[in-house]
# Entry
Amino acid sequence: MATTRVVTATINGRETSFLCEPRQTLLEVLRDVLDQTGTKEGCSNGNCGACTVILNGRSVVSCLVLAVECQGATIETVEGLATADHLAPIQQAFLENAALQCGICTPGFLVAATALLRENPKPTEADVRWHLAGNLCRCTGYDKIIRAVLDAADRQPAATSKT
Amino acid sequence: MRNFDYAAPATLADTVKLLAGQNGRARPLAGGTDLIDHVRTGRLAPDIVVDIKQVPELNIFEFGPQSLRLGAAVPCWRVYGSDAIKADYAALADACMIIGGIQIQNRASVGGNLCNSGPAADSTPALIALGAVCVIAGAQGSREVPVEQFCTGPGKNILQPGELLVELRIPKPPANSGSHYRRFIPRNEMDIAVVGVGASVVLDAAKQTIVSGRIGLGAVAPTPLFAAAASAALAGKPATEATFRAAGEAARQSISPIDDMRGTREFRLQLTGVLVERVLTAAVERARSR
# Structure
């Protein structure tokens, strides 16, 4: 039956090898094997977006990815957003716009918003609401989150704007 | 989660051989957005999960002169991100961009949506409207089945143990054609269809008369349905509101909806007519604007 495997992936720019069983999700491995607990477990069935990470350039819910699928993959988590000295602009915008209360959904929103702003650096409010529909927040009522993402977009250089 | 073995074969031949040797205890994995949840909840208990994403045939995404070949593992974001899909297969783009949220669309495949065989699967009525054919591989060879014959009940389909959906082949629509998929949900996104309707139409050169049309219905029966009578009723008729209303009425006659948490039978009967009218209107508008 199933044996433990070694998987090597690039996580937040660093080549990382880990042991996992086929049944372990990427979320479990990030949190329980690699101690990268910034990625949160919410529903564990793909509805809430709290465990969002960027896998090979696309945002995904890590609770619905098997860790064994990630051999050779590039994975970005919330831990990779800030540098040692500075928060990422999206994090700074969340802070300044008070876009969180309890905070459990925040890493997922930050990562999903990062993916959005890469793809669409100047989104409309409707774009942001649509793109973040897969992330649930039970505290804020979303408005401050949407404002924070638009604020972060405004702080970016406009050179690559789509609109 | 229950443990299982994992394999990621590189060729279709190896995949078919692997699936055939498991006596039905293997499950293919594309985006995993249904499979992983079903294993976690115990609804499925495979001994081995076979990741099919390395197999070239399952990633094929080719627009030929006769038809589109859509590999069963191609994720939704690639489908709706394609200008050629938006132009010729718009109903499929409409469906793929509303399946789950972005994170789901970045993983989930159209083939997986079909193989999960949920009655409310968004992409299936669109595939039915577009006349898709399923290409299925097995140890005994391959076979082709019209998409409306694929699902046999909630979560059930015609795949035999060891068989694999390889690709969907969708005929290239003729000139003056258009298609659309729409569903009713109580919110704007991230929900399951109360009713979903896909339709395609081909208009005459003057773009006034419907030459032919196909209507696919979701969440109104144990499987997604091809509304045969409603579709046949479109042929030769003027592309007008009265025709759309008659098709909606015919579609209503062909369904067997249930009461559930998302809506009552009565509501679904009403909705089906309304959505068929609206979806046909939009499909005709698209055909006229091309």
About this structure: The mean pLDDT of chain B is 97. Residues 265-288 of chain B form the longest helix (24 residues). Chain B touches chain A at residues 1-6, 8, 29, 31-33, 36-37, 39-41, 47, 49, 51, 53, 77, 100-104, 106-107, 188-190 (CB under 8 Å). The domain at 177-288 of chain B is CATH 3.30.390.50 (Enolase-like; domain 1).
